[in-house]
Amino acid sequence: MNGLPPALAAGLAMLPDGTFAGKTVMVTGGGTGLGLAMGREFARLGGRIAIASRSEEHRAKGVAAIRAEGGIAEGIALDVRDADQVALAFDTVEERLGPVEVLINNAAGNFPVRAEKLSPNGWRAVVDIVLTGTFLCSKAFAARRVARGESGAILNILATYVDGGAPGHAHSAAAKAGVRNLTESLAIEWAPDGIRVNALAPGLFPHDDHAPAMRSRRPDGYEAEKTRIPAGRVGKTQELGWAATYLCSPYAAFVTGHMFVIDGGDRLNRSIRNPEFEPIRDQLPD
Ligand SMILES: CCC/C=C/C(=O)SCCNC(=O)CCNC(=O)[C@H](O)C(C)(C)COP(=O)([O-])OP(=O)([O-])OC[C@H]1O[C@@H](n2cnc3c(N)ncnc32)[C@H](O)[C@@H]1OP(=O)([O-])[O-]
Ligand SMILES: NC(=O)C1=CN([C@@H]2O[C@H](COP(=O)(O)OP(=O)(O)OC[C@H]3O[C@@H](n4cnc5c(N)ncnc54)[C@H](OP(=O)(O)O)[C@@H]3O)[C@@H](O)[C@H]2O)C=CC1
Predict the structure, then answer these.
(1) I need a surface site. Which of 5, 34, 206, 214 has the fewest CB within 10 A?
(2) How many domains, in total, are found in the chain?
(3) Which segments of 55-124 are extended strands (E)?
């Protein structure tokens, strides 16, 4: 489990080439980090990628990365918190790339903060991006798929702290837990329409795009994680692409309402000798 099989490390496909040929895949927050890694894998399998986010710079970077690999990508301006912008984004994508058949709700906001210091607006910003944004995009997607009488797939990006919470991240953990529950409600509601709704919960996947507030503050970066995570390493962003494309592919046609965890066993980590408890207020700045 510590490394990748040589064939996978060399970039060989898990799914057949062309699995997403002719399909439009919208990735919210797809210009950076994990969203971009997933978009690249969908594009490699033939998908047309719509990168929908707020920052022109992020969108342009993502579009350039996918096009440099021979893929098809367009950037679409979108703040997922705004229902009118969401509707316009879906219409614009349809005009430029065709109707969206796969939606990846990846956009998120997060910053570490002691809960008693989190302002109402800080709470609202994160919950609105993660929970309300996921609902608004899912609703716009499903309304269009149902009107066309066509199936589709939604993948919601969670975090492993949907179980157990996350001290210092109360806003994000609560919002992600809400998205997990939403995944299940919508999966049941839309199953008769052929719309599958699944979730992917990543463990620790460092990347160069991480927002400054979310970067590791440890002097050794992520070196210590090698002994903390049971698999002995952090995740590689390409691995999320493999999981995401499988869950949205016809090979997962009977999979819906599922949360797929990809974390090297981190979530289940229990030790015989547990570390001492260090209060969160001692771990975060004032
Ligand atoms: C752990 C591993 C798992 C990883 C999971 C991830 O999700 S990784 C993904 C991570 N990726 C990202 O997060 C990328 C996207 N993130 C973002 O765009 C911003 O971080 C955002 C979420 C604040 C939204 O931006 P926006 O322009 O909509 O909002 P705004 O700037 O107007 O602020 C709204 C309120 O929040 C307050 N506040 C802000 N920062 C801090 C802080 N550090 N401390 C305290 N408070 C903070 C700010 O003061 C304000 O409250 P006020 O003063 O009015 O009471
Ligand atoms: N990296 C990790 O270890 C982990 C990540 N995750 C999850 O993976 C996903 C991707 O995170 P990651 O790539 O690490 O982080 P990034 O900060 O790189 O990505 C977040 C993306 O969300 C977009 N975004 C933020 N707010 C909005 C908004 N209001 N409307 C539209 N787009 C928005 C940003 O684009 P823009 O600024 O252009 O709007 C950005 O591209 C998130 O859901 C995160 O919670 C979960 C567990 C671990």
Answers:
(1) 5
(2) 1
(3) 72-77, 100-105
Query: What residue ranges line ligand 2, CB within 6 angstroms?
Result: 28-29, 31-35, 53-55, 58, 78-81, 106-110, 129, 133, 157, 159, 202, 204-205, 209-211
Band of pLDDT at residue 3, cut at 50, 70 and 90: low
Which residue, 179, 243, 201, is CA-closest to 38? Answer: 243
Query: What pTM was computed for the model?
Result: 0.96
Q: What is the DSSP letter of 128?
A: I
**89-99 tens-digit pLDDT:** 999 999 999 99
Q: Is residue 201 part of a domain?
A: yes
Interface predicted TM-score (ipTM) of this complex, two decimals: 0.98
Distance, CA of 90 to CA of 98 (rounded, Å) = 10
Expressed in angstroms, the distance from the first to the final Cα of the chain is: 39
Cα-Cα-Cα-Cα dihedral sign, residues 178, 183, 188, 192 = positive
pLDDT in tens, 176-226: 999 999 999 999 999 999 999 999 999 999 999 988 888 776 667 788 777
Q: For residue 33, give the nearest of 100, 108, 103, 89 by alpha carbon.
A: 108
CA 20: distance to chain centroid? 18
Domain range enclosing 47: 17-207+215-283
Q: Is the CB of 122 inside a 6 Å radius of any atom of ligand 1?
A: yes
